[in-house]
């Protein structure tokens, strides 16, 4: 049986659950590949990943059959190229603020005139063992492009962003929205209204939408509203929670 791609599962509105990886170690990626998670997201925006550590973490995830996304440092085409050439399933692009920018990242992630540069020697292309036409076909069928929405300007333009072809999903950065609106809590009415508007626009445009949530208990509410992609917690939170639980159980 051929396993359905993450891209197809997103499009089918399956509930996708992943977590962020903040530690630039292939062992962490390898261990998480043993879990029932649907994917991991290597956080090259906020954690100390370089090209080499991204490469080995993506390698470890692929070896374990785990889809890997990379939250790249910025929307620069070279960051998109690096992650995809290393063999990542897709990219999460932070601070997408307009439909024009969304169109640019979609173009940079796919082959074609003015788009992603081609190298048959990459892991993604099978180190020159896959014909160019076949690799381009595989890439088009499997590459996932996710636009992270976390700025007031993006919320203002969200209906247009949601309609951009080539962007496979929107991802809501609720913490950055909280900061951008000058709010003290992610439950501030302005933040909640912004999240709701993003989800509404995505559903209206038939675009998958997801988010990070600090409270897993909030997932059912947003699933009911139409969200299906949840990148929750991180390897750091797992370590902290496990250590706290162990200490409490022994010292109680």
TrEMBL record:
* Gene3D superfamilies according to UniProt: Phosphoenolpyruvate-binding domains (3.20.20.60)
Q: Where is the HpcH/HpaI aldolase/citrate lyase domain?
A: 18-238
Give the matching InterPro entries.
Answer: Aldolase/citrate-lyase_domain, HpcH-HpaI_aldolase, Pyrv/PenolPyrv_kinase-like_dom, Pyrv_kinase-like_dom_sf
Q: Which domain of life is it from?
A: Bacteria
**Keyword entries, A-Z:** Lyase, Metal-binding
The record ties this protein, via PANTHER family, to: 2-KETO-3-DEOXY-L-RHAMNONATE ALDOLASE (PTHR30502), PHOSPHOENOLPYRUVATE CARBOXYLASE FAMILY PROTEIN (PTHR30502:SF0)
Please give the family membership noted in the entry.
Answer: Belongs to the HpcH/HpaI aldolase family.
Protein's recorded name: HpcH/HpaI aldolase family protein
Species per Swiss-Prot/TrEMBL record: Terriglobus aquaticus
């Amino acid at each position: 049986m051929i396993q359905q791609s993450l891209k197809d599962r997103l499009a089918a509105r399956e509930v996708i659950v992943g977590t962020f990886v903040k530690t630039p170690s292939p062992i962490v990626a390898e261990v998480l590949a043993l879990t029932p998670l649907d994917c991991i997201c290597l956080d090259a925006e906020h954690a100390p990943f370089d090209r080499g550590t991204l490469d080995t973490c993506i390698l470890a995830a692929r070896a374990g059959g785990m889809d890997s996304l990379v939250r790249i440092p910025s929307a620069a085409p070279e960051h998109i190229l690096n992650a995809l050439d290393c063999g990542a399933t897709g990219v999460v692009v932070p601070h997408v603020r307009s439909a024009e920018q969304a169109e640019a990242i979609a173009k940079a992630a796919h082959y074609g005139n003015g788009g992603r540069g081609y190298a048959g020697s990459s892991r993604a292309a099978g180190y020159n063992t896959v014909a160019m036409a076949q690799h381009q076909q595989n890439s088009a069928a499997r590459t996932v492009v996710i636009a992270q929405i976390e700025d007031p300007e993006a919320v203002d333009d969200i209906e247009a962003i949601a309609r951009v072809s080539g962007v496979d999903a929107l991802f809501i950065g609720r913490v950055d929205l909280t900061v951008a609106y000058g709010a003290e809590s992610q439950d501030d009415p302005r933040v909640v209204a912004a999240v709701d508007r993003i989800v509404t626009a995505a559903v209206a445009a038939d675009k998958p939408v997801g988010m990070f949530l600090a409270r897993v208990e909030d997932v059912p509410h947003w699933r009911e509203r139409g969200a299906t992609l949840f990148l929750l917690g991180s390897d750091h939170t797992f370590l902290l929670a496990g250590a706290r639980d162990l200490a409490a159980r022994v010292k109680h």
